[in-house]
Known about the structure:
424 residues; alpha/beta; globular
Amino acid sequence: MIIHPIEKKIADGVLELSASIQWEHNGVGYKNSTWFTPPERLWYRLDEKYADTLSDNHNAFLGSLLVMAMFFKEDVHVKGNISGQLLYNLREYQRTLHFWRPDWFSVVNVTCDTIVSGTTNFAVSGSMCSYSGGIDSSHTLWTHLPKNEPLTDFQVTHALHIPGFDTDGESLETQKLKIDTYTKGLEAEGVALVVVWSNTRAFHQFDFGEEKGYFAWGSNVAGTSLLFENLVNRFYFSADNQHDDPIALTINHTLLPLLSTDNLKVVLDGGTISKYEKISDIAQWESTYDKLMVCYKSPDGLHNCDTCVKCIRTTAVLETLGVLDRYTTFPSITNPKGMRLSLYPREFVYCMKKPRNFFFRNGEYGYALNYQCAIFLSWVNVYYYDVTKFFEWIYISPIQLLFKLSHVLKRRLPLYDKLLLLIK
């Protein structure tokens, strides 16, 4: 992979930074790689007022794309500047990914035209956090506001919002409504919302399963934050799971701090706090009552759906805590049937144990039973899939073997080939 020089354009008040991405094989050689159709350029677009403060190096581009180069076993050369600290950290970043999933991610060689080492932004202060409007990012923002964080250097001054990075089927109208609402709400807290549109997600394509995406998605966010090392010197990434969750859900806790550069430190926040503690905390913050959005399937304006697993779970938690009536962004009633039918693949069945335990501890035994039912049905679904694949293998493999054997015999035994023609 070659990441070409950055091109900067400003038009209609929008600044665009982009670079051409050249693949050595473009996925060719990887099994069934015809599904891999990445864009030709990686781009970031944001308000032109940041034109003089954005970093002029390639850190963000490399940080966002390295995981895919590892997936396709391609060495990376950057035709531009890279932080020496980042280059050093990426060795451990790669070793960590390869340690957990050597079958998916290979260690590759990373080079660049120029290495830039040493802190160059001594005058820069302030911190940025990721902000999607969800539970985790709202909690990070809430706990780092001046009224809750006494240490000035660690208070959040900016919040990074990347429209659509973790949602499917979200309309442009919904995205713009979110941006307008979040901007006004954060301004009231003295925090600037920095909106960055990007196509990084389009590069993170995998052949099957959700688990591979979990190993990669965090680099979209933390990689984008590296654009702002001349604006802030710290970036808080909101942990979406606790440290004791399976590695696919917690790999970002180890990986993303390794995307730190000489001038910007990436910090994980909230990995020791459960979702339910976070909801309880932010329920004290009135600003979330018309902004809290957790839906990733079909958000409609500032309204969470009543069908995806995150919306169903969060609605029930808010009701259990006695604060559901405060939130205009959630349905007014819970969806017990949806809880029972919240089926997960094998890697994520574990995710339903925590809501089950939360509801049981809080005396909501009906909700706890619904999630226990969902756990049971998920395992039934998993084993049904395994049995189906096993019988497919039993049925198909011998037939494939016979065809292969026949092909070899036709090439090596002319008499066999004549016999087949006679039979036909």
